[in-house]
Amino acid sequence: QVQLVESGGGLVQAGGSLRLSCAASGSIVSVNAMGWYRQAPGKQRELVATITSGGTLNYADSVKGRFTISRDNAKNTVYLQMNSLKPEDTAVYYCNAKVTDHTYFSYDYWGQGTQVTISS
Which string of DSSP letters, residue by residue, matches 6-71? Predict the structure, then answer.
C-alpha cells in the first residue's frame, strides 16, 4: 500500500502565500510524475501543476507565474508554493502521484485533500 499525506492548507488573505507539501510512503519502488489538482465547490477537479521524476514541469494557465511546483525525490515529496493568491484559488487541493509499487505495476494515488481558502 502507498499513502500520500498532505499538509499546508489554510486560510489566507488575497495576495498572501501558502506552501503545500505531500509525502508519499509505503511499498514504493519508484515515484514517477507527481502533481497537484484542485476542486472548488460545484466544479470539476482540475489540474494545477505536475512535475515528472526528471523535473519536467506543467502548469495550468491560471496559476502560471504565481505557483511553483517542486519535489524532493529522496523524500518522495512534492511541494506547491502558492504566491499572489486570489479568491478564485479557493478549493480543496489534492496531491497525486504515479507510483510503481512492490508489484512493479504503476498506479495513481491521491492524497486526502487539503482546504485552501482565500479571503478577499
Answer: EE--EEEETT--EEEEEEEEESEEEEEEEEEEEE-TTS--EEEEEE-TT--EEE-TTTTTTEEEEE
117 pLDDT band, cuts 50/70/90, is very high
- Report the pLDDT averaged over residues 23-33: 94
Q: How far is CA 74 from CA 36, 42, 62, 100, in A?
A: 19, 37, 30, 15
Query: What's the confidence (pLDDT) of residue 58?
Result: 98
Cell numbers for 109, please give them: 494515488
Long-range CB contacts (within 8 A, 24+) of 63-67: 63/89
pLDDT confidence of residue 29: 92
Q: Are 82 and 67 in contact (CB under 8 A)?
A: yes
**What is the model's pLDDT at position 40?**
97
**Which are the contacts of 107, defined by CB distance < 8 A and separation ≥ 6?**
2, 98, 99, 101
Average pLDDT over every residue of 57-63? 98
